[in-house]
Amino acid sequence: MSAAPPRWAERLLRRCLGHGVVAESILGDLREEHARRLRHGRRIADRWYRREAVGIAGRALAARVSGRRAIGAVDADGRPGWSGVGGTRALMGRGRGD
Q1: Rounded to the nearest 10 degrees, how much is the dihedral formed by the CA atoms of 45, 47, 53, 56?
Q2: What pLDDT score was predicted for residue 63?
Q3: How far apart are CA 82 and CA 48, in angstroms?
Q4: Which of 87, 24, 29, 20 is CA-nearest to residue 59?
Q5: Which three-class secondary structure state does DSSP give residue 80?
Q6: Distance between CA atoms of 79 and 61, rounded to whole angstroms?
Q7: Residue 86: per-residue pLDDT
Q8: What does the pLDDT read at residue 3?
Q9: Do the beta carbons of residue 71 and residue 18 sit within 8 Å?
Q10: Do the Cβ atoms of 56 and 29 come closer than 8 Å?
Q11: CA–CA distance, 80 with 94 (Å, rounded to integer)
Q12: What is the pLDDT at residue 95?
């Protein structure tokens, strides 16, 4: 059984998040969790990954449209982007009681 998440969902995330350090971290965490969920079945793991991917991509696009910095951007001080919206926890939907 392949541990790879659904390709279209991974491409969606890559397109919305870009190639920064934070984006790579998010993608890596999602891949690891997908691999763990495979023990409950491919359909369950894929459904979870698709739901997460669409949610994260939606929040990333909403932030981009509203003029916030792109994910993975780094300040002059070396701080990762999105620090003004709660960091990656907010982006992944876990910053406000999720």
Answers
A1: -100
A2: 86
A3: 24
A4: 87
A5: strand
A6: 21
A7: 44
A8: 83
A9: yes
A10: no
A11: 18
A12: 46
Sequence letter at residue 73:
A
Assigned token pair, 86: 């709660």
Q: What does the block give as tokens for 81? A: 């982007």
Position 83 scores a pLDDT of: 43
Count of residues in the chain: 98
For tokens 């449209």, the residue is: 65
Rounded to an integer, what distance in angstroms lies between the CA atom of residue 85 and that of residue 62? 12
Beta-carbon-side half-sphere exposure of residue 64 (alpha carbons within 13 Å): 14
Question: 3-state DSSP call for residue 71?
Answer: coil
Q: Are 74 and 23 in contact (CB under 8 A)?
A: no
Per-residue pLDDT of the chain (98 residues; tens, 9 = 90+): 568 999 999 999 999 988 889 899 999 999 999 999 999 999 999 999 999 999 999 998 888 888 876 555 555 455 555 444 444 444 555 444 44
**Residue 15 near residue 59 (C-beta atoms within 8 A):** no
